Amino acid sequence: MILNKIYIDRLIENSLLEDINYVDAATDYLIPEVQENTAQFIAKADGVLAGLEVALRVFEILQPDFKAEVFKNDGDVLKKGDIIAKISGKTRTLLKGERTALNLLQHMSGVATATNEAVKIIEGTGASIADTRKTLPGLRPIEKYAVTVGGGKNHRYNLSDCAMLKDNHVDAGGGIINAVNALRKKLGHTVKIELEVRNLDELKQALSVDVDIIMLDNMSCEDMKKAVEITAGKAKLEASGGITADTLRAVAETGVDIISMGAITHSVKAFDISLKILK
Fold it and tell me: Which of 95, 156, 239, 268 is deepest in the core (most CB within 10 A)?
């Protein structure tokens, strides 16, 4: 796992505090402190696993000596009924960590599954699937990690990663040429410039100022094909805006390099996974 462990621990600790607060009114009064049990994570649907180490870390924080037996790893394709992992420890640990662990695991696996479905749709074209900054507050790192597990690529993590000029930047900055030239005077040499364009005239302006990446915003497939011809490899072309599973293949076949989709993070369905204590 490439996620920052400090971030993960803080995310889990905040989630546990939100869920448990002061006491687990059912578990703490019902279950003896010495009681131990074994439970297993079970896939309830078909999809791609992501976030297992994050889920297991929940129980490790609650009980450092808990035990885990792992049968599936991030990136593995799951079938309904697959046993993902088996965990053993104090029963209170299993019950208190269950919801937090499942919330994280189900959401991350949902992102990975949605991304993988998009990647399969465009298979054989030259395009790649990328995420956006349309992520849930506080969850961006785990969502972007899950995108990579599903076979996608990460767009910028935040506003510091790339100087991206969208329509509002251009309109407020005096037009494409003025905005790009003014920005370039102040940027360091390691920062790329991406520019959003709304039509082919703006595309030609973008090419005249040598931006690194051009985003084709809500363009028709016909116009995107023309954009690919006009650009002729002088800049990376990214398609974005209103792209669905039904239109995804046609967009990829226009010849664009990247297809960015907010839906693979902000609109995914949680992947169905359960945690069952073995009797």
Answer: 239
**DSSP bridge partners of 215:** 196, 238
For every residue of 90-155, DSSP letters joined together read EHHHHHHHHHHHHHHHHHHHHHHHHHHHHHHHTTTSS-EEE--S---TT-HHHHHHHHHHTT-B--
Question: 57-105, pLDDT tens digit by residue?
Answer: 999 999 999 999 999 999 999 999 999 999 999 999 999 999 999 999 9
Q: How many CB atoms lie within 10 A of CB 170?
A: 22
**Given the residues 44, 72, 99, 192, the one annotated as active site:** 99
The whole-angstrom separation of Cα 109 and Cα 236 is 30
Active-site residue, from 196, 202, 238, 257: 196
Q: Are strands 67-70 and 83-90 parallel, antiparallel or unpaired?
A: antiparallel
Q: Which helix (H) or strand (E) holds 87?
A: strand 83-90
Would you call 80 a catalytic residue per the annotation? Answer: no
Q: Could you tell me the pTM of the whole model?
A: 0.95
Catalytic residue among 134, 140, 198, 249: 134
Bridge partner residues of 38 (DSSP):
88
What residues contact residue 174 under an 8 Å CB cut-off, 6+ apart?
A: 182
Known catalytic residue: 99? yes
Q: How far is CA 121 from the centre of its chain?
A: 18
